[in-house]
Amino acid sequence: MGLKEAYQDKLEAQLKEWTATLDQVKAKADAAEASARIEYYKQIDGARAQIAAAQAKLNELKASTEDAWASLKGGVEETWANLKTAVDGAVSKFK
């Protein structure tokens, strides 16, 4: 396995983890009072949009050549940082 594939595997695992976390947060939001649910759902929807963007970046990375993937890495990492912020924001509503 090359460096590119290892990097992709790491990103895919993180996406799965964050998706599962958001599913748990949504389950908690579903049980919240109606007035609170609106805010929780906004946070969750924002994070899910970030997951979609991250998946698109990952697909772009997968389609890249061995030589070109390093140039995409910066954009991928920025997308991942934004996603982490969104997921952390959604999770923090339930602490």
Automatic annotation (TrEMBL):
Annotated protein name in UniProt: Coiled coil domain-containing protein
Keywords: Coiled coil
Coiled coil ranges: 8-64
Top-level taxon of origin: Bacteria
